[in-house]
């Protein structure tokens, strides 16, 4: 429970309350990340990714097995996705940057699912035309992350359904309504599109294997909110003749407000990749911090980086250098750095990041077609 007594809720559709990751690992029955997995991935990549160094990947399922398969010389694959319900924010980019790192390190195909069907059936306020429109917009962000054009296969559930439907049907026949209810908490008032949809998200775990006619171990990088899908999929995979998919779970990038993950439903505390840099700067300057109420108090008592959304952005994304991060933390705690200056520094970094990302996003329009499955 948080101070406000808000219970932690983490589902694929809702994340609220203060997140207790240890409790989540226990509740979801996943394995905590280990230094040995980090070392094995880093050895293959030639460097330790910031997200691994900082413990942003907190847990996994069978990553060691996926690495073993790769070591044996077997082909391995990656899968991740996006529910196009709006514009992409910085939180979404976290697992996509990590996919790029893994794709480069392991020289793998990446299947990237755009669930325009999911967002249409789950979100009352969205029309199908809107989710299809966001699919196109969001695909530009995926490409701007620098993924390999030859090895990245983006597809939308509605547009490319002829590649997907047969596998999804086979998945759906293996999952009873009672299992779906237990895993996802469906209610009688939910529409039947919602109940069908998990077959679509599960199906992609097997898509590369189906297309290549070989059983290919699949690893899914995503934040931990998506885990219920994999729980369901892992139960049926072997019965369908495939390996169980492996996962690596990220923590959530917080929003710029007090507590909670970055979420499109709170646009004032989220930074979108299409935000004009000056708007993003304003959002950062209005962020909740771990500082004291006044500059004087801050200088006397110092701040608390662990409670600070601004610090979280340096930590998760924008301060690559560990020693500089420690220096920032020390300056904050000692009171020698005040929140206004710390925010202004971050605002400039994010603004530069957006300018660069938006150029890549624009360029992506020229080669979008090359990334789509056919
Ligand atoms: P969606 O669109 O909600 O999220 C896309 C990806 O971003 C992750 N994510 C975050 N990561 C860190 N910090 C945050 N604040 C944050 N918010 C979202 C999500 O975990 C996800 O990895 N149903 C899915 C679409 C999907 C999918 C998949 C996702 C289909 N197949 C396979 C991951 C893997 C969805 O709506 O994601």
Summary keywords:
7-stranded mixed beta sheet; 374 residues; binds tryptophanyl-5'AMP; 17 helices; two-stranded antiparallel ribbon; alpha/beta; globular
**Uncertain runs:** none
Biggest β-sheet description: 7 strands, mixed
Beta fraction: 5-15%
Strand neighbour order, sheet with most strands = 3-4-9-8-5-6-7
| Overall helicity | 40-55%
Classify the secondary structure makeup into a structural class.
Answer: alpha/beta
- What's the rounded overall pLDDT mean? 95
The topology string of helices and strands comes to: EEHEHHEHEHEHHEHHHHEHEHHHHH
Oligomerization state: single chain
Write the layout of secondary structure elements.
Elements: E1 9-10, E2 15-16, H1 21-28, E3 31-32, H2 35-45, H3 50-53, E4 57-61, H4 63-71, E5 77-82, H5 90-106, E6 109-114, H6 116-122, H7 128-144, E7 152-156, H8 161-174, H9 177-184, H10 192-203, H11 207-212, E8 218-223, H12 227-237, E9 246-250, H13 277-285, H14 295-301, H15 309-318, H16 322-334, H17 339-371
Parallel strand pairs: 5-6, 5-8, 6-7, 8-9
Antiparallel strand pairs: 1-2, 3-4, 4-9
Helix pairs in contact: 2-5, 6-7, 7-17, 8-10, 9-12, 10-12, 13-17, 15-17
The site of tryptophanyl-5'AMP has 25 residues, from strand 5, helix 5 and strand 8.
Please provide a brief summary of the model:
By secondary structure, the chain is an alpha/beta fold.
Give a structural overview:
A seven-stranded mixed beta sheet has the order 3-4-9-8-5-6-7, with helices on one face. A two-stranded antiparallel sheet has the order 1-2. The chain has 374 residues and is α/β, with parallel strands linked by helices. The protein has helices spanning 21-28, 35-45, 50-53, 63-71, 90-106, 116-122, 128-144, 161-174, 177-184, 192-203, 207-212, 227-237, 277-285, 295-301, 309-318, 322-334, 339-371; strands at residues 9-10, 15-16, 31-32, 57-61, 77-82, 109-114, 152-156, 218-223, 246-250. Tryptophanyl-5'AMP (TYM) binds at residues 12, 79-83, 91-92, 94-95, 113, 115, 118, 201, 204, 220, 222-223, 225-226, 250, 252-253, 261-262.
